[in-house]
Amino acid sequence: MTVKVYITPACPYCYTLKEFLKENKIKFIEVDVSQDEKTKEELIKKSGKMEVPVLEVDGQIVAGFDKEKIVKLLKIKE
Q: What pLDDT is recorded for position 36?
């Protein structure tokens, strides 16, 4: 399973999502879209908008910190 998190440094929801993933021992690749126009365009292409955080799990997209969707997608037991 490949997990990517698209973030910006000033985003509080990005921090919350990253901490949630760490607490649940989910390894992820962090992609800072504020540093590179190409990654920003990639995010918009995948999610349809410029919004962070965006979680990508094996090609499936969750925009925002939607805990319910994330738990279901990653099969996290609460």
A: 87
Which CATH homologous superfamily contains domain 3-74? Glutaredoxin (3.40.30.10)
What is this structure's pTM?
Answer: 0.91
In the chain, domain spans = 3-74
Split at pLDDT 50, 70, 90, the class of 49 is: confident
- Asked whether 52 and 14 are in contact (CB, 8 A), the reply is yes
Could you write out the DSSP letters of every residue in the chain? --EEEEE-TT-HHHHHHHHHHHHTT---EEEETTS-HHHHHHHHHHHSS--S-EEEETTEEEES--HHHHHHHHT---
